[in-house]
Design goal:
The complex is a heterodimer of chains A (334) and B (320). The model of chain A is unreliable at 11-24 (pLDDT under 50). Chain A has helices spanning 2-24, 42-57, 71-81, 95-101, 130-144, 159-175, 196-208, 222-231, 259-271, 303-318, 326-329, and strands at residues 29-32, 62-65, 87-90, 110-113, 123-128, 149-154, 180-183, 213-217, 235-240, 251-257, 279-282, 289-291. Chain A folds into two domains: 2-129 and 260-282, Response regulator (Rossmann fold), CATH 3.40.50.2300; 130-257 and 288-329, Response regulator (Rossmann fold), CATH 3.40.50.2300. In chain A, the strands form two sheets. Chain A has a six-stranded parallel β-sheet, sandwiched between helices. In chain A, strands 7-6-8-9-10-12 form a six-stranded mixed β-sheet, sandwiched between helices. Chain A is built from eleven helices and twelve strands. In chain A, β3, α4 (95-101) and β4 (110-113) form a beta-alpha-beta unit. Chain A is α/β, with parallel strands linked by helices. With 320 residues, chain B is mainly alpha-helical. Chain B has a domain at 15-119 and 144-246. Chain B is 70% helix and 1% strand. A two-stranded antiparallel ribbon of chain B has the order 1-2. In chain B, a hairpin with a 3-residue loop joins β1 (275-276) and β2 (280-281). In chain B, α3 packs antiparallel against α4 and α12 (251-271) packs antiparallel against α13. Chain B is globular, with a radius of gyration of 20 Å. The model of chain B has no long low-confidence stretch (mean pLDDT 89). The chains are: A alpha/beta (334), B mainly alpha (320).
Chain lengths: 334, 320
């Protein structure tokens, strides 16, 4: 008798929990890419945007860090099935899983950042003109370099990451046509984003070859690049989030990509019934990318550098300088 | 010349954790305990070292903590495989999973940085040591670059690693303990018959293993890098095991095998996009495939048969 009663209470309790879970989960969701929530870079920018949304509106959101490729599709499917809406997926690696899941949940809105999925009616794509932001930091690097050699470290050989490098080279050559640029990848696949030790060694080898400003496009592994630069007393350049604070005075600037704004807007647009499933391109003109200036790098940036950057920014916005996007034809003019 | 020195310096740096882990594996496998858990111990001790160094501000405390954590892991391995005569591979794999999961979990819970520990600096980190006269000899031709550039300026763990090689060789071939260690891995019954404790000898080997791998783990997180990142060993424990087989469980060849792996990694970082004479610029992908290609070639062509200690992997059961 007693057992029966206990069971009843238990079952009742479980049902309530299930129901509660069902009602509470109309929240937006955010699933981080490899490298994890606190990579101090790309994913962290998405997290910052979501946190700001939570602070502004009091709306909760669900988030998840994945552990390996196998979890990708499962993670999106689970959030969609639980009624989370919209679901924000920062990172181009989400494309395949998104294509598999999105058609099954036509009423759920998805936003993918960093790649274009324009053939599904419930997917918004947000892409950035990384080449424009990289152009600015490239110009800064060329002005700050004393050896005339600067470095670029992508996580691996991938068109998106190489577009950072191509913009960087164009910007550097605009300021100093004779500048030498070394480019070295850390690894061969997505796991390179998680290899700060590799980042450190690649940076050291570039420093040995004379580089005195190094820009990384390596997510979590970039922490190792900036560490090596700080250890050697040269300058690093951060990426995606503002990384100037990691080593104050040793990080020249950061190429900020407003992944936080993209995430915030996705959440807010859905809430305010302003959702559009289209392709949003954010460049310098839209303040979607830029170079970070704050108290941590104030001593590194001269007035002349600042003026040049303002001049270049104006020229890019007005269309006087057109920064080539290496993704369009897989070549780089610089 | 400078280019060569720079590649060799990188080689020494990336080989250090490999050599430490490889020698660690040598002690345990020579005693008859297969230690597939080297990777996990590297991760766990890197984590322990980074946490304690960050909290106490002392790199030495961090190093001791790294060794301590690895001792605990070895104790579990020993208990499972020596006392309870369990399968050593399974116990080792379990330790690998435990280390990867526990370090990330505890790191996230304690520091809220997604498993990363706070970066350490100053007294909480090991820096390169300038050997005596390194500055004065810098400009001397040939000797200068080699002494001041290549030999001087590494973290203390690097010197420990390279010193551990001749010490291990001496212990293994010239001491009573070494003789017994080799015997217990080949024929534990003989030792048992002679009245020695097989278990205690194997535990002693595991203690040495832990100390070495603990130093290697601490090197990863508070010397080479300045914080712990999840899974930062990145397969080095497995590479060390491969090097051990390469070297047929001998210390000096083990060092060279590790240096070879380190050299290939250094080459890969260094030669990307460089114009080589005759060949021209080498594609990045070819450079990055080089370590794997060479490994297969060497394994297939030059190493020959590698025969492990006869009793390795087998728990010792007294006849009743």
């Amino acid at each position: 008798m007693k057992i029966k009663q206990t069971l009843k209470t238990l079952v009742g309790g479980l049902t309530v929990t299930a129901l509660m879970a069902g009602t509470a989960l109309a929240d937006p969701a955010l699933v981080y890419d490899g490298g994890g929530k606190f990579d101090g870079s790309f994913n962290e920018a998405a997290y910052t945007g979501a946190e700001r949304y939570k602070a502004d509106t009091g709306t909760n959101y669900q988030d998840l860090e994945i552990d390996g490729v196998a979890q990708r599709e499962q993670a999106i499917r689970q959030f969609a099935a639980r009624g989370n809406n919209p679901i924000v997926l920062p990172g181009f690696s989400w494309e395949e899983s998104l294509r598999a899941v999105a058609p099954d949940f036509p009423d759920t809105m998805f936003a993918i950042i960093d790649t274009v999925v324009d053939d599904l009616p419930n997917v918004r794509s947000v892409v950035f003109k990384e080449q424009e932001g990289s152009y600015l930091v490239g110009a800064l690097a060329a002005m700050a370099s004393e050896t005339g050699t600067i470095g670029f470290i992508p996580a691996f050989d991938f068109s998106l990451l190489l577009a950072f490098g191509c913009g960087y080279k164009q910007g550097a050559k605009y300021v100093n046509p004779d500048i030498e640029i070394i480019e070295t990848a850390i690894g061969t696949g997505f796991d390179a984003f998680n290899n700060p030790g590799g980042g450190t060694e690649v940076a050291r080898s570039q420093i040995d070859r004379g580089a005195d400003v190094i820009y990384h496009a390596a997510g979590g592994a970039g922490v190792g690049v900036l560490q090596a630069a700080a250890d050697a007393g040269i300058l690093g350049i951060g990426v995606d989030s503002n990384q100037n604070h990691l080593h104050p005075g040793q990080v020249l600037t950061s190429m900020i990509k407003r992944v936080d704004v993209a995430t915030y807007n996705a959440f807010a647009d859905y809430e305010n019934d302003e959702w559009t499933s289209d392709v949003i391109v954010l460049g310098l003109a839209e303040d979607g990318v830029g170079a970070a200036f704050d108290e941590n790098n104030a001593d590194l940036i001269t007035d002349e550098m600042r003026a040049t950057i303002e001049d270049i920014t104006a020229k890019i916005v007005s269309g006087e300088i057109v920064v080539h996007d290496s993704r369009t034809d897989n070549t780089c003019p610089a | 010349m400078e280019d060569i020195i720079s590649i060799l310096v990188t080689t020494v740096r990336v080989s250090t954790p490999l050599i430490l882990a490889c020698l660690a594996g040598l002690y345990s496998e020579r005693s008859g305990i297969v230690d597939i858990g080297l990777e996990g111990k590297l991760i766990a001790s890197a984590f322990g070292a980074a946490v304690v160094a960050a909290v106490t501000g002392s790199a030495w405390a961090g190093l001791l903590a790294g060794i301590g954590v690895s001792l605990v892991f070895s104790a579990v391995h020993g208990l499972a495989s020596i006392n309870f005569k369990g399968n050593q591979i399974i116990s080792g794999v379990a330790l690998n999973f435990l280390a990867a999961g526990l370090s990330t979990f505890l790191g996230a819970a304690w520091f809220g940085r997604g498993g990363n520990t706070p970066p350490v600096s100053g007294d909480a980190r090991f820096y390169g040591i300038q050997l005596p006269f390194a500055a004065e000899l810098r400009d001397v031709p040939i000797v200068g670059p080699i002494y001041s550039g290549l030999i001087s300026g590494h973290a203390i763990m690097t010197y420990i690693a390279f010193l551990a090689v001749p010490v291990t060789a001496w212990v293994l071939w010239r001491t009573r303990f070494g003789l017994r260690l080799r015997a217990v891995g080949e024929n534990p019954k003989a030792l048992d018959t002679a009245g020695m404790s097989v278990s205690w000898l194997r535990y002693k080997a595991l203690i040495i293993t832990s100390v070495l791998v603990g130093i290697g783990g601490a090197y990863l997180s508070i010397a080479q890098a300045a914080s712990f990142t999840p899974n930062m060993a990145a397969g080095r424990g497995y590479i060390a095991l491969a090097a051990l087989i390469f070297a047929k469980w001998k210390p000096v060849p083990a060092m060279f095998a590790c240096l070879l792996f380190g050299f290939l990694e250094a080459m890969q970082y260094r030669l990307q996009g460089v114009d080589l004479p005759v060949i021209g610029p080498v594609p990045t992908q070819a450079m990055q495939a080089l370590p794997y290609i060479l490994t297969i070639l060497l394994l297939a062509g030059f190493v020959g048969r590698a025969i492990p200690p006869k009793a390795s992997g087998l728990p010792y059961v007294k006849e009743r």
